[in-house]
Specification:
0% strand; elongated; 1 helix
């Protein structure tokens, strides 16, 4: 069986910096590479 190689994108909105960090940790635990994860902030995070 051939592996599906289509690009898949997921977008999420987190209310806090810690929620964002936790989400990235869950993604890397599932096997996603940090180089495939982007985070955009509003610049007001003080975590």
């Amino acid at each position: 069986m051939e592996k599906d190689r289509r690009i898949k994108k997921v977008v999420g909105i987190s209310p806090t910096l810690q929620d964002t960090i936790d989400a990235v940790d869950r993604l890397t635990t599932k096997g996603y590479s940090n180089s495939n994860i982007s985070v955009i902030t509003n610049g007001n995070d003080t975590g």
